[in-house]
Amino acid sequence: MADGLADPAVWVLDPCCGNGSYVVAVLDRIRRTLEGRGMGDLAAEELKRAATTRVVGFEIMTVPFVVAHWQVGEMLKAAPLQAGERAAVYLTNALTGWGESAAGPAIPGYEALVEERGAAATVKRERPILVVLGNPPYNAYAGLSPVGEGGLVEPYKVGLQAIWGVKKFNLDELYVRFFRIAERRIAEGVGRGVVSYISNWSWLFLPSFVVMREQLLRASAALGAQLAALLDPEAPMPGVTTGQLRSEIACVAVPSTKPGHDRDWALRGWGNRTAAGVTMPTRGRAASRAYDATEAAAQGRAGLLGANTFDVGLNDHSFWSGVPASVWECRIGGYQVLKKWLSYRDHSIIGRPLTAGEVSHVQQTARRIAACLLLGPALDASYRNCVADPA
Ligand SMILES: C[S@@+](CC[C@H](N)C(=O)[O-])C[C@H]1O[C@@H](n2cnc3c(N)ncnc32)[C@H](O)[C@@H]1O
Prior knowledge:
alpha/beta, 41% helix, binds S-adenosylmethionine, 5-stranded parallel beta sheet, 391 residues, 15 helices, 13 strands
């Protein structure tokens, strides 16, 4: 990402932000990048957008939480926060609330706290965090990870005794729990990203942490896992199929109908069945066009997604809008993936319109292909690294 932290798609989290020094440092980095671009007054607004949305801090203690808000407010002098706007620093326990559970119980008299908890939960569950940084708390005697943390460090204990013969260990160290939060979010969530903590270094050499080291190494090879998940239609992919979608993905293959017509999901002109019962693809209805203004994010990735895009018609009236050329033309095993799927579901063959689930399946497949294509440079770089260092 050429713009680094200044890229609007880069979500940053300091899960233990204290007085907000890291949050402020990230914002300052963004400010310098933006100012170097001659954006004038727009830079201040863009910085405010980052501070109120995607540069996020969590803090459990009220005093540093307030100081963090004060510090971020100071950063935004050129475009001050207005009524109803707030820095994306939340009062919350960073170690809990990441799962898909119901909103917590009411706390009468403390409605603002409940609201705060809800806002933090939205970040934990939905935002495609790409960078986790900070200075987690240390406490080797913090006691067992409580139930609310959902067995956070249990994966670092698997096989410790049976495989590695480590009988005495202490993995409930607080900073280790923050490592696990970051690993889960990056390696098991978005599937790519950066973790940068200042931390105790005991995990680098003590026997207690051997499984943790093993797991982090595996996680850093997550690129392959990410590709595998993209190719598995059942695997949810945050940013591609779930949660807040990446902007270059959200405009891909949007089911649409021409104004003045009723929605019609019967596929026509895609295939037929011969007298011998063989399905034959026909020409279909894919019309090439230039990207429009709502597809600027995809157009910005035209180098990987293709210089033009297609409206792929179900029939004369309804269509999937904006399937970038390289997605539409993508072939696996010699077959054009999307066209092949459509050919087999022509109305003349299945005798019914597509269901909403099927229309959505085509959209999700197009988006997964787009995400795979966008992974290309990272995959190429990884391949080059392996070739350069076969060990
Ligand atoms: C070492 S300090 C970080 C200092 C910070 N970098 C700064 O600039 O002030 C660790 C912070 O983590 C906070 N903290 C500890 N446990 C937490 C938790 N479960 N959730 C969120 N914050 C937590 C502490 O209150 C403390 O402010």
